[in-house]
């Protein structure tokens, strides 16, 4: 009982003590604590949400970065593969280019032993010309004997007469010139068809070149398009001639090639020695305000000197002398009282170093230098070496070889055709160049006299091929197979080949005229030859055969 009562009392006391009314202040904080907790929980939830968004953004950025890296890796891999493929094509292209270049050089260096060996490898005429009537051996022999062979004696007599008079005229020219101020004139040399014995068309004209040099203490310094400095394509085959004092050495100094400032001075060449009065250079036949030899000034000087020389010796001769062309320095004509006349060209030239290559101021009849870049550009002529090459090769050919006969017949046909249809871009120099190439390519026995017909056909085929390709290379320039006996300068052998047909590439009207003239010549060949051929019995000729060219 007491124990139960005690328990009841303890329970009552506990209830009284824990009643909220006894402790109002302490129990009043409970609602505030709950509201603060809720607010904190909301703040925590918001921060967690923001953190989640941040993490999601970082994950998205990392995924984008990863994708970009993977894409970049793919691009790099593809570029590597593309580069490998490009390197392979580049290397293959270089190999093909080198093979083509090697083949081109071998072809241009005269590696043409098969030319004419097989007719399939020669140029084939167009369908309209495959049935061209070609004279046989008997007709060609009769034509050559009647029309061409008889002119040889006339050429020899004319050469002797012109050379004797030219020597006398040049000796008088030296006497009227001032040895201390005027150019020094050397002996003349004969070049061209009259001295290579293949000219057939009248009137006969002798071509003589006269080397000249400046007075002391001056000298000529020649520069060609293949000497290292860049020349435009239209100036290939030309060069310039600088008039310098002999004691000047400009080879190792750039003051002459580079514009120095006004406040700069060359330590090797003083201003006094590098600049000369304009009148002094003009007296040396230079272009105005330059040191370069002017072809027009040379022409005027030479014409005046020749006029003075003739006035000194004219009393010795019973003929008159005059200039036949005013735009050529020495196109002269001798007029006899009987009415006959003889024309010849006396052209001043400048020797290139110690060789027989010459700078020529003007070409008679303007056959090779129609468009000279300027009067300070001089064309190079290799006429002396061409004559020597023909003489050298002739010694190895059979007796009475047909090489000169081929050129004579072709030159005659071309001249006759031009008289009918007018001149064209094709010249006798082109025909001679064709012969020079074939002389080097074919063995000696192929030029026997009985093979005249075959060799004439070879020349026509070769020329037709060159016209079709618009390529006829100069025989000496770029030809590494020139005989060493000629002593030909190595600088021209190593130069790029010079295409004589290059001017016709852009001038289509002249090219078309040249091709038409060639085809017309083929059509009229038999008629032109038969016109100058005596009657040959049918048993000997069996008519005129038609052979495809």
TrEMBL record:
Record's keyword terms, sorted: Cell membrane, Coiled coil, Glycoprotein, Membrane, Nucleus, Signal, Transmembrane, Transmembrane helix
GO cellular component: nuclear outer membrane; plasma membrane
Residue span(s) of domain Mab-21-like HhH/H2TH-like: 404-481
Coiled coil region boundaries: 38-72
Stretch forming the signal peptide: 1-20
Entry GO MF terms: protein kinase inhibitor activity
Compartments, record wording: Cell membrane; Nucleus outer membrane
InterPro entries found in the cross-reference section: ITPRIP-like, Mab-21_HhH/H2TH-like, MAB21L/cGLR
Entry-linked Pfam families: Mab-21_C
Annotated membrane topology: Single-pass type I membrane protein
Family: Belongs to the ITPRIP family.
General function of this protein: Enhances Ca(2+)-mediated inhibition of inositol 1,4,5-triphosphate receptor (ITPR) Ca(2+) release.
PANTHER family the record matches: CELL FATE DETERMINING PROTEIN MAB21-RELATED, INOSITOL 1,4,5-TRISPHOSPHATE RECEPTOR-INTERACTING PROTEIN
Protein name: Inositol 1,4,5-trisphosphate receptor-interacting protein
Annotated source species: Erithacus rubecula
């Amino acid at each position: 009982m007491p124990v139960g009562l005690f328990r009841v009392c303890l329970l009552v006391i506990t209830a009284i003590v824990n009643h909220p009314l006894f402790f109002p202040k302490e129990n009043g904080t409970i609602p505030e604590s709950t509201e603060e907790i809720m607010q904190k929980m909301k703040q925590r939830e918001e921060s967690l949400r923001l953190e989640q968004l941040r993490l999601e953004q970082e994950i998205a950025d990392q995924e984008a970065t990863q994708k970009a890296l993977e894409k970049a890796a793919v691009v790099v891999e593809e570029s590597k593969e593309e580069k490998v493929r490009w390197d392979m094509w580049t290397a293959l292209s270089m190999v093909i280019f080198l093979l083509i270049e090697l083949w081109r050089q071998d072809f241009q260096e005269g590696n043409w032993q098969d030319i004419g060996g097989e007719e399939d490898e020669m140029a084939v005429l167009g369908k309209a010309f495959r049935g061209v009537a070609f004279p046989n051996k008997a007709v060609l022999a009769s034509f050559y004997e009647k029309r061409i062979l008889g002119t040889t004696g006339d050429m020899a007599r004319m050469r002797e007469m012109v050379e004797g008079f030219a020597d006398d005229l040049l000796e008088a020219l030296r006497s009227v010139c001032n040895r201390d101020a005027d150019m020094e004139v050397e002996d003349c040399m004969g070049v061209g068809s009259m001295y290579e014995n293949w000219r057939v068309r009248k009137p006969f004209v002798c071509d003589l070149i006269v080397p000249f040099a400046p007075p002391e203490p001056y000298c000529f310094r020649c520069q060609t398009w293949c000497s290292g400095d860049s020349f435009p394509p239209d100036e290939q085959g030309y060069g310039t001639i600088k008039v310098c004092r002999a004691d000047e050495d400009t080879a190792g100094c750039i003051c002459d090639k580079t514009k120095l400032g006004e406040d700069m001075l060359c330590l090797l060449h003083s201003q006094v020695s590098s600049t000369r009065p304009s009148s002094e250079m003009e007296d040396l036949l230079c272009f105005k305000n330059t040191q370069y030899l002017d072809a027009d000034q040379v022409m005027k000087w030479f014409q005046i000197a020749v006029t003075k020389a003739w006035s000194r010796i004219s009393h010795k001769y019973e003929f008159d002398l005059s200039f036949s062309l005013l735009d050529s320095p020495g196109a002269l004509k001798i007029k006899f009282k009987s009415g006959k006349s003889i024309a010849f060209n006396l052209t001043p030239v400048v020797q290139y170093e110690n060789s027989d290559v010459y700078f020529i101021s003007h070409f008679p009849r303007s056959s090779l230098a129609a468009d000279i870049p300027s009067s300070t550009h001089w064309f190079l002529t290799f006429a002396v070496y061409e004559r020597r090459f023909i003489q050298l090769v002739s010694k190895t050919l059979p007796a009475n070889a047909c090489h000169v006969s081929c050129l004579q017949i072709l030159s005659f046909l071309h001249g006759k055709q031009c008289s009918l249809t007018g001149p064209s871009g094709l010249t006798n120099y082109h025909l001679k160049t064709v012969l020079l190439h074939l002389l080097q390519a074919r063995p000696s026995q192929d030029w026997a006299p009985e093979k005249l017909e075959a060799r004439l056909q070879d020349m026509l085929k070769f020329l037709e091929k060159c016209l079709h390709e618009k390529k006829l290379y100069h025989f000496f320039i770029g030809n590494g197979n020139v005989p060493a006996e000629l002593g030909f300068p190595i600088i021209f052998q190593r130069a790029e080949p010079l295409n004589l047909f290059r001017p016709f590439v852009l001038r289509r009207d002249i090219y078309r005229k040249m091709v038409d003239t060639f085809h017309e010549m083929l059509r009229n060949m038999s008629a032109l030859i038969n016109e100058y051929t005596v009657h040959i019995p049918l048993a000997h000729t069996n008519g005129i055969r038609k052979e495809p060219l």
